[in-house]
């Protein structure tokens, strides 16, 4: 599971960017249940996965450490060292 800071950010992104997310979950209730650890891991991880398609984190946030280097490819024009 990501850190609490990253998890809250991903939940916010999920509700802001995923079409009809509000039909699946009530944002305030979902957030309160997540903070109280009442959301099953598979549901939280599914929300994080959907939200991550819309997330753009700088390397300092630490999200990139969650992704194996073998699966990440540089973007066109990205300089790698």
3D architecture notes:
48% of the residues lie in helices and 0% in strands. The model is unreliable at 67-71 (pLDDT under 50). The N and C termini lie far apart (29 Å). The protein is globular. It has one domain. The protein is mostly helical and 81 residues long. The longest helix has 14 residues, at 4-17. The chain contains 4 helices and no strands.
Secondary structure blueprint with pairings:
Layout: H1 4-17, H2 21-24, H3 27-35, H4 41-52
Helix pairs in contact: 1-4
How far apart are the first and last residues' alpha carbons, in Å? 29 Å
Shape: globular
Helix and strand composition category: mainly alpha
C-alpha-based Rg, rounded: 14 Å
**Count of helical regions:** 4
Fraction in helix: 40-55%
Strand content: under 5%
What would you call the quaternary organization?
single chain
Number of strands: 0
Largest sheet, in brief, is:
none
Any idea how many domains? 1
Poorly predicted runs are: 67-71
What is the residue-mean pLDDT, rounded to a whole number? Answer: 81
- What order do the helices and strands follow? HHHH
Key traits:
single chain, 81 residues, mainly alpha, 4 helices, globular
Short description:
The protein has 81 residues and is mainly alpha-helical.
């Amino acid at each position: 599971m990501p850190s609490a800071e990253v998890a809250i950010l991903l939940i916010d992104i999920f509700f802001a960017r995923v079409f009809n997310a509000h039909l699946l979950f009530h944002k305030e209730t979902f957030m309160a249940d997540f903070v109280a650890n009442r959301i099953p891991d598979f549901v939280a991880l599914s929300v994080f996965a959907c939200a991550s398609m819309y997330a753009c984190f700088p390397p300092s946030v630490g999200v990139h450490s969650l992704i194996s280097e073998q699966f990440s490819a540089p973007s066109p024009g990205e300089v790698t060292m």
